[in-house]
Design brief:
Strand content: under 5%
Radius of gyration: 24 Å
Number of helices: 10
Low-confidence stretches: 304-308
Main location: membrane
Number of domains: 1
Structural class: mainly alpha
Number of strands: 2
CATH class: Mainly Alpha
InterPro entries: GPCR_Rhodpsn, GPCR_Rhodpsn_7TM, HCARs
Helix content: over 70%
Order of helices and strands: HHHHEEHHHHHH
Distance between the termini: 55 Å
Shape: globular
GO molecular function, one term: G protein-coupled receptor activity
CATH architecture: Up-down Bundle
Family: Belongs to the G-protein coupled receptor 1 family.
CATH topology: Rhopdopsin 7-helix transmembrane proteins
Keywords: G-protein coupled receptor, Membrane, Receptor, Transducer, Transmembrane, Transmembrane helix
Largest sheet: 2 strands, antiparallel
Length: about 300
C-alpha cells in the first residue's frame, strides 16, 4: 500500500509542482497556500519508500540512527503541515464565498508567503523534537524506528506533545466543518449554486473535508484511544494489540493525503483542470492507438485471405 501511495504521490505532486512553477501565473494568495501543501507532500514522498522498506522487513530499520530521526521528522512534518495548510485552504474558501469583502481576500502574495512561513515555523517547531533524541528500539534481532511504541511507557513530555497535537487536530476539524457548513448554507440561502466560481469553491471545500476524514481522522481517533488507555496503568501489553494494529493501519491511511491532494488542486484552478484533462486525453489516445493498429492488421489479414 505504501509503495502505491509513493508512486501515485510522487507522480501527482511532481506534476502539481511543475504546474505551479511553470504554468500557473500570476500567483494569488490561494496559490501560495496550495503550493506549500504540495511541498509538504513532497517531503513525505522522500521518506515514504524507506518507510515502506522498513515495514516490508517486518519493522527492521537498516538505515542508521540519523536517517531514522530525519525520516520520522519528515513524516510528522507532512502530517502537521498538511493539517494546517488544509485548514487554511478551508478558511480561504469560506472567506471568499461567505465574506467576499473581508481584507483577507485581497491579501498580497507577499503577505501570503509570510502566512505560510508562520505555518512552517509552527510545523517545524512542533515536530523538531524528533531530531534531538534516538528512536531506535531493539526487538530481538530487529531494530525498530518508531517515534513511540504503544506498549512502552511514555514520559510526561511525550504525553503533553501528543495531547497538544490531538487538540490542534480536533480544533482544525471543527474549523473545517464550520467553514463547509457555512458555505453550504450560503449557497442555499442566496441561491448562488449557478455561479461557477462558487460551485468550484464548494467542490474544493468538500474535497478538503473528505480528504481530512479519510486520511487524518482515523489515525487521530486511534491515537486518542491509545492516549486514553495509557492512563490505565493496570493494562498489560496484550491489551494494546488491537490498538497497535489499528494504529499502524490508520497511519498508512495518513500517507494517502500526498496521493489525494491533487484533487484539491483540480477544483482550485482552471489551469490544473485543463492540464489534467489534456494528460487524460493523451493517455486515452495512446491506449486507443495500439487497438486501432491491431484492427488494421486484422483487416489486412482478412483481405489477404479473401484474395487467396
Amino acid at each position: 500500500m505504501l509503495v502505491l501511495e509513493f508512486i501515485l504521490g510522487i507522480l501527482g505532486n511532481g506534476l502539481a509542482l511543475w504546474i505551479f512553477c511553470f504554468h500557473l501565473k500570476p500567483w494569488k494568495s490561494s496559490t501560495v497556500l496550495l503550493f506549500n501543501l504540495a511541498l509538504a507532500d513532497f517531503f513525505l514522498n522522500i521518506a515514504l519508500p524507506f518507510r515502506a522498506h522498513y515495514y516490508q522487513r517486518r519493522r527492521d530499520w537498516i538505515y542508521g540512527d540519523v536517517f531514522c530521526r530525519i525520516s520520522l521528522f519528515m513524516l510528522a512534518m507532512n502530517r502537521s503541515g498538511s493539517i494546517l495548510f488544509l485548514t487554511t485552504v478551508a478558511v480561504d474558501r469560506y472567506l471568499r464565498v461567505v465574506l467576499p469583502h473581508h481584507p483577507f481576500n485581497s491579501m498580497s502574495v507577499a503577505k501570503a508567503v509570510c502566512v505560510t512561513c508562520g505555518i512552517w515555523a509552527v510545523t517545524i517547531s512542533s515536530t523538531a523534537h524528533l531530531l534531538f533524541k534516538p528512536h531506535f528500539i531493539k526487538a530481538g534481532n530487529r531494530t525498530q524506528c518508531e517515534s513511540f511504541l504503544i506498549c512502552k511507557a511514555s514520559d510526561s513530555y511525550d504525553k503533553l506533545h501528543k495531547g497538544v497535537f490531538l487538540t490542534s487536530f480536533y480544533l482544525a476539524l471543527v474549523v473545517i466543518l464550520f467553514c463547509s457548513i457555512r458555505i453550504i448554507f450560503k449557497l442555499r440561502d442566496r441561491q448562488l449554486d449557478k455561479n461557477s466560481k462558487i460551485k468550484k469553491a464548494l467542490h474544493c471545500i468538500v474535497a478538503v473535508v473528505v480528504l481530512f476524514f479519510i486520511c487524518f481522522f482515523p489515525s487521530n481517533l486511534t491515537e486518542l484511544m491509545i492516549l486514553t488507555a495509557s492512563f490505565h496503568h493496570s493494562l498489560i501489553c496484550k491489551d494494546y494489540e488491537g490498538l497497535e494494529m489499528a494504529f499502524f493501519f490508520t497511519i498508512s491511511l495518513t500517507y494517502l493525503n500526498s496521493m489525494l491532494d491533487p484533487i484539491i488542486y483540480y477544483f482550485s484552478s482552471p489551469t490544473f483542470r485543463k492540464i489534467y484533462q489534456k494528460l487524460l486525453m493523451h493517455c486515452l489516445r495512446k491506449t486507443e492507438k495500439p487497438e486501432a493498429k491491431e484492427d488494421r492488421t486484422h483487416d489486412t489479414g482478412s483481405q489477404t485471405l479473401s484474395q487467396l
